[in-house]
């Protein structure tokens, strides 16, 4: 007796349906994984921004709270150091490419000593200035720290990077009457030998996940020396 066996395979339609189902499942898994990685990248980017902002603002707060006014009893022995009694506090309202890029220079007792011979902190000229990042987007905020009696670097040079990836840097100054000013010059006639009572620092960072809306941090720093000078002159 002869038994005939007929082997039946998949039809073209069944193969196409199977491929379609597999492609749908694969795309769903891919989208899910892509979304997860995007969230992780966004979270990591925000974490880096918050870390830089925290470090920068803490450093600037300490510098400003230690701002020092030379009444003239202590004269700089170096004529090349602009951070003497003639220029105690100068904030300039500046822009780069239409964005705020303010600068600030003042005397502070928050000098950071990197040399083993320098014990602790001391009086120094502190400057903040903004520069372009030639290797990427955004601005770089620099901090220059010049010990008293030493030759200061040229304006807007010689600083260490405080933070980068910035969209803008803006300083606002408040006098004893709570009046806000975009710039401050204690060597001029109007604000001669005066300190702001408070400085508002605004750092805006570029958010790579949404470049149209920067991440903004604002810190108000009260200056004890400014309040003291205001109280003693009124």
Strand portion, in percent?
25-35%
How many structural domains?
1
Summed over residues and divided by their number, the pLDDT gives a mean of: 80
Shape: elongated
> What's the story with the biggest beta sheet?
9 strands, antiparallel
Strand tally, please?
11
Low-confidence stretches: 73-80
Radius of gyration: 29 Å
The tally of helices reads 2
Helix/sheet category: alpha+beta
Helix content: 25-40%
Give the SSE order as H and E letters: HEEEEEEEEEEEH
Task: State the distance separating the first and last CA atoms.
Answer: 124 Å
Compact summary:
The protein is an alpha+beta fold and 234 residues long. It has helices at 12-65, 224-232, and strands at 89-92, 95-96, 99-100, 103-108, 124-132, 139-147, 160-174, 180-181, 184-185, 198-205, 215-222.
Overview of this protein structure:
There is one protein chain. The chain is an alpha+beta fold. It has one domain. The chain is built from 2 helices and 11 strands; from the N terminus they run H-E-E-E-E-E-E-E-E-E-E-E-H. Strands 1, 4, 5, 6, 7, 8, 9, 10 and 11 form a 9-stranded antiparallel β-sheet that branches. The protein starts with 11 loop residues before the first helix and ends with a helix.
Topology:
Elements: H1 12-65, E1 89-92, E2 95-96, E3 99-100, E4 103-108, E5 124-132, E6 139-147, E7 160-174, E8 180-181, E9 184-185, E10 198-205, E11 215-222, H2 224-232
Antiparallel strand pairs: 1-4, 1-9, 2-3, 4-5, 5-6, 6-7, 7-8, 7-10, 10-11
Could you list some keywords that capture this structure?
234 residues; alpha+beta; 2 helices; single chain; 11 strands; elongated
């Amino acid at each position: 007796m002869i038994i005939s066996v007929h082997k039946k395979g998949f039809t073209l339609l069944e193969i196409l349906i199977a491929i379609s189902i597999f492609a749908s499942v694969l795309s769903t898994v891919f989208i899910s994984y892509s979304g997860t990685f995007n969230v992780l990248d966004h979270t990591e980017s925000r974490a880096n921004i918050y870390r830089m902002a925290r470090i920068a603002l803490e450093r600037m707060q300490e510098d400003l709270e230690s701002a020092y006014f030379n009444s003239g009893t202590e004269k700089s022995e170096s004529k090349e150091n602009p951070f003497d009694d003639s220029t105690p506090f100068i904030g300039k309202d500046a822009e780069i490419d239409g964005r705020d890029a303010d600068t600030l220079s003042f005397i502070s007792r928050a000098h950071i000593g990197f040399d083993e011979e320098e014990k602790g902190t001391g009086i120094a000229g502190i400057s903040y200035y903004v520069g372009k990042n030639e290797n990427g987007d955004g601005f770089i905020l620099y901090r220059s720290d010049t010990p008293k009696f030493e030759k200061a670097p040229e304006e807007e040079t010689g600083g260490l990077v405080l933070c980068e990836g910035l969209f803008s840097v803006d300083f606002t100054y408040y006098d004893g009457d709570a009046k806000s000013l975009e710039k401050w010059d204690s060597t001029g006639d109007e604000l001669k030998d005066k300190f702001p009572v408070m400085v508002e620092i605004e750092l805006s960072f570029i958010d790579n996940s949404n470049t149209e809306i920067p991440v903004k941090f604002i810190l108000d720093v009260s200056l004890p020396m400014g309040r003291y000078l205001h109280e003693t002159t009124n």
